[in-house]
Specification:
21 strands, 298 residues, elongated, six-stranded mixed β-sheet, 3 helices, alpha+beta
Length: 298
């Protein structure tokens, strides 16, 4: 009799367990689609070389589940500023001058706002044509998108948006990395040293702070204190003002001949600029002779 009662009590537990296993297996086998991005606000970084030509990137989606999809799975993309608004508020609260920007519409083309994952495959993608020349290295740019479900397709609710970030680079500096050059030399014949960050502008030009001036992340100060280096095909460097700075190149210095060199020492490679120039800032004129050096690590 006792065994009969035990069996009757155990039966509901067995039935519940079987039902839970069915639900688990059903969830495990589901082909749920997610946009491929990082876990950090669903961002994806595309580092675009400044070449003056169009660059092709991709926005991709993947299917989860134990097995590959048995049928084609299609999702639609649409422009949506809401993910970018959420990103800006989370990072910068009400400080709008720090906000990331939507990539200008004349800088990209998405010809097909559809991503298809073919039967038997895990991923699908759509093409983004990018024209990055003219973008500011001081701004953060995103294409802000969300995916929408189509019949027969389930989206991952946590991965149905993407902030597709465009970062620019050239041969000498990159917005995606900390392009920090070590500086040694002399200011009005007084030995000086420090570090300078370079910013890519075009295929052959970079921007940096002039002399020993401090860097401040505001446009007015950047305009007053920054210079542009243009590297020619012969590796000669032309020095120009970025905006409002008074500066002139000083040629004829054998030690600092205004050149760029890709230097290799014991298998290590370095970008090396040897510069000589004179600039005026805050009514003070300074003659700079400097070497800028950064190891190439990738």
């Amino acid at each position: 009799m006792k065994r009969k009662y035990i069996a009757m009590l155990a039966l509901p537990l067995v039935l519940t367990s079987c039902k839970d296993n069915e639900i688990f297996e059903k969830e495990m086998y589901k082909n749920v689609v997610a946009l491929i991005s990082s876990s950090y606000h669903n961002t994806f970084q595309e580092v675009v070389p400044l070449t003056g030509e169009e660059y092709t990137g991709y926005i991709a989606a993947s299917s989860g589940g134990t097995d590959v999809p048995a049928n084609n799975m299609v999702i639609q993309l649409e422009e949506d500023p809401a993910p970018l608004d959420k990103y800006n508020r989370a990072l910068h609260d009400a400080d709008e001058k720090l906000y990331a920007k939507l990539l200008p519409r004349d800088k990209y083309v998405i010809e097909d706002y559809k991503i298809q994952i073919n039967a038997g495959e895990r991923t699908g993608r759509t093409m983004v044509k990018l024209r990055a020349d003219g973008l500011s290295p001081d701004s953060t740019y995103f294409i802000s998108l969300k995916a929408t479900e189509t019949p027969g397709v389930e989206l991952n609710a946590l991965k149905n948006t993407i902030l597709y970030q465009i970062q620019i680079r050239n041969d000498y500096a990159s917005q995606a990395t900390n392009s920090l050059y070590s500086m040694t030399g002399a200011a009005n014949e007084i030995v000086t040293a420090g570090n300078k960050k370079m910013f890519p502008l075009t295929k052959k030009t970079v921007r940096l702070i002039t002399g020993t001036e401090a860097f401040e992340n505001n446009l007015e100060h950047i305009n007053k204190t920054s210079m542009v280096l243009e590297v020619g095909e012969d590796k000669k460097v032309t020095i120009k003002p970025f905006k409002d700075l008074q500066i002139k190149q000083v040629d004829g210095d054998s030690r600092y001949p205004n050149t760029y060199t890709l230097e290799e020492i014991y298998g290590r490679k370095f970008h090396v600029f040897l510069l000589s120039y004179e600039y005026t800032y805050n009514k003070k004129t300074i003659h700079m002779q400097e070497e800028l050096r950064m190891e190439i690590t990738n």
